[in-house]
Fold this sequence. Notes:
This protein is mostly helical and about 120 residues long. It contains 6 helices and no strands. The N and C termini lie far apart (about 50 Å).
Amino acid sequence: GKKKKTKMSRKEAMEKLKPSIKKYFDAYDTNSDGTLSYSEVVEATKKLLGNCELTESQISKYCKTMFEGSDTNKDDKLSFIEFFGDMSKTIPDEFIDDIPKAQQYLDGLTKKLKE
Length: 115
């Protein structure tokens, strides 16, 4: 057959990363209600970007696009499933091939959000 060895499908890789993504999601969810509001996404994004060159309006534009794209049921909040779905699309291929590297990266982001 034409099967490539050791290549994991994106779906399988995302399942392996789910615990790390859940921790990352929880770090966004500052009021611990199990969903992300738009303002929680904005606050987290500002923290993650640190002192970057983006203006407030660029940040909110970016967040709005991300938020609206991920909020599939349009209830103005992101559930973990919606957040996970968005991550599944946006996680780079290099991480799909290297789960430990992906976990390290996500854990680093989570730490940053909790600072």
